[in-house]
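Re: zinc ion structure - here you go.
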Amino acid sequence: MICGKMYAPDEVAYICPDHGNDGILDVVYDYNAISAEFHKSDLATNRDESIWRYKPLLPVSAEAIVPPLSVGWTPMYAAPRMAAAHGLKHVWVKDDGRNPTASFKDRASAMAVVKAQELGADIITTASTGNAAAALSGICASVEQPNVIFVPESAPQAKIAQLLVFGSTVMLVKGTYDDAFELCLEVADKYGWYNRNTAYNPYMTEGKKTVSYEICEQLDWQAPDAIFVSVGDGCIIGGVHKGLKDLLALGLIDKMPRIYGVQSAGSDYMWQAWTNGEDVLTKAPIAADTVADSISAGLPRDRIKALAAVNETNGAYIRVADDAILKAVPAMARLSGVFGEPAGATAYAGLIQAVETGLVSADDRIVVINTGNGLKDVKGAMTAVDLVGTKAYGVRPNLADFDEVFTTI
Ligand SMILES: *Cc1c(COP(=O)(O)O)cnc(C)c1O
Ligand SMILES: [Zn+2]
């Protein structure tokens, strides 16, 4: 929080007018009013298996029309072999790769589309490393909402393919994600388009916070001790924190889990700021470069909330090398059955390091969020299996040849 000013929902569009692009707003609720009308028991009988089961806790009206694609209520798998591999007792993998466009970003994009349609927006726009774009693109397609997307031309093919398949207008920016973000802001401003950009549009956090509602509901309202999540712009980690704060304020959980933000050593702005006690309002952008394209961010747009998420919960920032991220892709898949893209497996790489450095203890109940499906980045996956020495065997189509190859394995 910079200045603490409050605005009514119709008073401002996205950001604090006094603080420009750093002045990201936070949606504030009247918890007493919500408490009076909303109870755990209502959820127990609610058959809506999507983020909209939490409508009373979201910035939409009860009558709001929501897109048809089913977003959220993703599975949370107990992962006993993953736990045992690290001397832990309780680990769950929350698989957000199971969203309609295969990443966590669907939670935010679904919210963006509802808010844009409330305003009757002609065009929605966003810049993205790839997944936020794919999410906006898919959800817009489901309701015939025109949209224009800015992605760096280096985004993985699968993500660009999604945009084109869904029929978005796609701008491949000759530059980094940070360049795409700045261009998109300028264009949105000039043409008056609805702006979904992460950390700029305050409602994105509100979509993302639903993951914490689900984690706690899926654990029967026994909040976990620790949650691991990868961090690029910091909007997801801020959303995780916001969701937990809501639940605590409403008395739905009785403790705040520790939140661990995991970054690649090649894109470690938040880790640097947290480790060195730097002021994120004045800290300069860094040059970001990592195999985990979804968390490559030289200037994390939601850095204030991202820092608070860790500081206010007694968590930590963790930095892992790209090699460790790549190795975590097959490791997570083999220990839990969940195939994540590199930025998804980054959370697990962070847990491995947290065990080694003593940040978690054996009895902790730990949730690892996989933020994106492994098929988003096949090239990354192939590099990963190569790194751990897993390969396929060529065989001619006859039994004798098979026998010969098989004996060498
Ligand atoms: C966007 C994204 C992240 C990081 O989220 P931020 O809000 O940018 O911190 C992590 N993993 C995946 C797969 C993503 O798409
Ligand atoms: Zn302000």
